[in-house]
Design brief:
This protein is 72% helix and 6% strand. It is mainly alpha-helical and 208 residues long. It has one domain. The strands form two sheets. It has a two-stranded antiparallel ribbon with strand order 1-4. A two-stranded antiparallel ribbon has the order 2-3. The two termini are 29 Å apart. About 7% of the residues have low confidence. It comes from Oleispira antarctica RB-8. This is DUF2878 domain-containing protein. InterPro entries: DUF2878.
């Protein structure tokens, strides 16, 4: 009996460390400093491996989730003229008339990749999926609800804290479009991840 209680206490402590670790890395990442964010993410991933002794199959799923999410965020940002601080971009500023007119309409910097701190944030969140944030997958309705409404709110907080801005946003339309786009994107990702992990468990039981 005591052994079971001790195991439960240890498991709960691990979940608490997992949740606090993610929150700390989230705060570091949204300061918009790529190098600090990368170091924080590496530290969290190392701690994650140390605590949970994660198998390579799980690592592959988490990394795939993070990369797909990161690239999707970059596309959404590019489509909606969101300039994440520290993004990888190319400068369109030139002396010819075409580029002059182009720059007047848009922005002389075109973002080609979202910043490293955003990728670090995705990796940090991925460490919670099977542990402190596992409650997200209790029901599909809960997953979709959280994705559609609460995740975009955290994005706006991150955008403000990092000093990122919407370019040429003279109305509230880009904000609402971004809110909807990120919500739908996250709903697709979370549901897809849930199906992937469920199928992996089913396959594992079949071959056991």
């Amino acid at each position: 009996m005591l052994t079971e209680i001790n195991k439960a206490c240890i498991a709960n402590k691990k979940l608490i460390v997992n949740a606090i670790g993610f929150q700390l890395v989230w705060f570091i990442c949204v300061q918009g400093h790529n190098l600090y964010a990368a170091f924080a993410a590496i530290a969290l991933l190392s701690l994650y491996q140390l605590i949970f002794n994660t198998q390579s199959k799980t690592w592959k799923a988490l990394i795939a989730f993070s990369l797909v999410g990161y690239l999707g965020d970059g596309i959404i940002a590019m489509m909606l003229n969101l300039n994440y601080l520290g993004s990888f971009n190319i400068n369109t500023n030139a002396n010819d008339s075409f580029n002059e007119s182009f720059n007047e309409s848009f922005n002389e910097n075109i973002n080609i990749l979202a910043p490293l701190w955003l990728l670090s944030l995705w990796l940090a969140f991925a460490t919670t999926l099977n542990h402190s944030m596992r409650w997200l997958f209790k029901t599909p309705y809960l997953t979709v609800f959280i994705a559609l409404f609460f995740v975009p709110i955290s994005y706006f907080a991150g955008i403000k804290l990092s000093g990122s801005t919407f370019v040429l946003s003279s109305s509230s339309i880009p904000y609402w479009t971004f809110f909807i786009a990120e919500g739908v994107w996250w709903a697709i990702l979370l549901m897809g991840y849930q199906k992937l992990t469920t199928s992996q468990k089913t396959t594992g039981m079949t071959h056991a």
